[in-house]
Amino acid sequence: MATVDVAFKNIAPSGQIARSGFSTNQTFTSSASSQATTAGANANEYAQIVVSGGNIRYTVAATPTAVADGTCELVLDGERIEVDVPTGHKVAIIDA
Questions:
Q1: pLDDT for the residue 16
Q2: Model confidence over 44-55: pLDDT tens digits?
Q3: How far is 51 from 65, CA to CA, in rounded Å?
Q4: What is the enclosing helix (H) or strand (E) of 25?
Q5: How many CA atoms lie within 13 A of 67 on its CB side?
Q6: Looking at residue 77, what DSSP letter applies?
């Protein structure tokens, strides 16, 4: 089980990633079951995923379900990644 923080953050008008501020932030304790954010990304947002305490897999979709079989992207313990998310789409996570 890992602690996973998913924050939808703004992309600056210049197209650069804004390093501060967020519209939605959700923290999960990962498990063998898929868990998805309750909110989707707004226009011009990306998702920042921060993992601590174990490896996870994630996926992005309008109604996402993460699976641990290798078809979803891997995030290692201690990593922070930034992911493009289409407007309205959510992030789902699961233990790797």
A1: 62
A2: 899 999 999 999
A3: 18
A4: strand 24-29
A5: 3
A6: T
Rounded to the nearest 10 degrees, how much is the dihedral formed by the CA atoms of 24, 85, 82, 34?
A: 70
Identity (one letter) of the amino acid at 57? R
Structure tokens at 86: 């289409």
Pick from 92, 18, 88: nearest CA to 60: 92
CA distances (Å), 45 to each of 6, 18, 35, in order? Answer: 12, 9, 20
Q: CA–CA separation, 56 vs 47, rounded Å?
A: 15
Write the single-letter amino acid at 44. Answer: N
Whose CA is closest to 59, among 86, 26, 87, 36?
36
Length of the chain: 96
For 69-78, what is each residue's pLDDT tens digit?
989 999 999 9
Asked if 92 and 85 touch (Cβ cutoff 8 Å), the reply is no
Distance CA(56)–CA(53), nearest Å, equals 10
Q: Write out the DSSP string of 37-62.
A: -SSPPPTTEEEEEEEESS-EEEEEES
